[in-house]
Amino acid sequence: MMPPGAQGRNFLLSMRRLSFNSGSTGEAAATLVRAALLALALCAACPAAARAGCFPVSDSAYVSLDSLVDKNARQALAAVASRLDASGGAGPAPDSRQLAVLYAVQADAYSILELDHEARAAAARGLALVNGPTDPLRLELLSTVALNIYTQEGIREAIGSIEAARAMQPEDSLRWLCLGITLGTLERRAGENALATRTLTRAYHDSETPARAEAHSEAAIELSSALRGVGDFAESLTLVREKIAWDEAHGDSLALSVSNYLEGEDLNAMRDFRGAIATFERARNISASLGDTQGIAFADMRICQGLVELGRYRAALPRCNSAIRVFTASNSTDVLKQTQEYLAEIDLQAGRPQQALGILDRVLDHAGTDMDANTVGIGYRTRAQAHAALHHYRRAYLDLAEYLRRYRAANLARRLRLQATVKERFLAEEEIARNAVLQHQLEVTRERATRQTQTLRWVAAAGTAGALVIALLSYILITNLRYRRQLVQLATEDNLTGMPNRGRTVQLATAALEAAAAQNRPLTIAIMDLDHFKTINDRCGHATGDHVLREFARVSRGSLRSADILGRWGGEEFLLILPDTTLDAALASVERLRVLALAIRVPCAGEEAPLRVTFSAGLATTADGARSLDEIIARADAALYEAKNEGRDLVRIDRESYQTASTGVRRALHLR
User: Rounded to the nearest 5 degrees, what angle is found at the Cα of 354, between the Cα atoms of 352 and 355?
Assistant: First the structure.
């Protein structure tokens, strides 16, 4: 087994290369697909040699030593060093090709240990000893040099060398295909996701034969990374699961750990946090069996993130702390700060805003320049919430504005990348279809006859099996319907108020926003926060606070339309979605709720002056062009902070929505 330190570096190398830059029916379908892919991979592997590789080098020394690299990279380095030392002794000197083979194995081992400079140097020494533009050993060394470069200038030079080598190979040969995978990987690292997608899509399709199954799995995982970089997570997930099937079939534990981790990344991005947590747990278990402490830390970080998203803060805390210890020891600044963001969210939800603020000030000490651009915005959003909890409303507003600015910039860049990628994928698919059309025309008649014969056989079998399947499905559906309803209710309803919980509210709001955009109708969102709610809890007890929340939910539901959506957003915050509603009508609805809230009785023993129930609210609308749910909620949140900062018991409209407001709305706001 590889030493723990080496395994940790190997995990980081794999992650660096691959990400440079739930119903039961669905589960069953996924299981069947994976089983089919696994069977295909097993059959394709039957005639293969011990280690085929994308560039199959047949030299016996390479085959024996490079298989050792996968098991123990340091041991392989020692074996190569011993042979190189022997070559300088009194015995017969090895020829240049034998030396090149030793350097190729040495470069592979250095790559696994993430010693980029040493890997490039060893591969370069080997390249100087090998001639022949089609020699697999030379192409293996050339690719190793290219894939161990991480500077933008070096990557551009490597792209040129790979393109030149590829032009000398017969098109559609395995060598041409594998150099295409290397080229696509380099293009992705250079930030050319659209170009990389086209290159890798072609490689993925050209490798769809049993003889090229290993190259196909490599093309799948690289194409997955390119698509993940532009936000096409569903397609990325499908490709990652192909790679998982290959890794499972060939017992490649380290690669399987990385593939499972990437599957979890896609599920996270698709907000399937429960599925993501289960997948990260599988990746963590594999890393633990390999002694891979870095792999364990990465999995713990993502498990912590998923638990925070699900509101399971107590369970998330030890996972975050475990990851932070490893990242601190390895001086991994970016992922350390990302994990600390989740830790700050836990502190904030546990009523420790000052502690959360201290963490976030350290996380953002360089204004996010030492963090991934996709995660730094979360720090500003969480710090805004911490400032608001401490009544620092001006600072909260500034942080929220910075979060909104970064979100918009990232969202625009992502849309532009996705548009370019869709175009390149279309061109690649068109080219593939054009090349395949002649072969299709030659085979279509034979395939049609075969299909008709098979159809007749299946019809006969289906007639018998269909009745049994229908009966079984009916029994299962009837038996489980009641339990499904109960589970759905538990998963989507806030147990105190009976309102939709935060996750369900997001789903309903997203659907309402999409419908409003499709029909070009206005939609307004309000965030309402009960004023001085902590005072009610402190003076009258939490039971009274719960009573106030339930009463507010009850009277609010009675005054809203059936199409309106009111959900509990967290604590004493509520999110109100008003479809087909202008700012004028929305302001009237919120004002009506404020009057109803004043009538709520606060039972508080020993209090001479009864407490009043008031709330502050922030409104934002889609009428000014907002189309993203995150954007409109962030703007409503900013307006809420303004209302709080100006004395509470107020309704405020975000600045951009205010520009589209009617004279009546502006007059009403000025009167308050």
Answer: 70
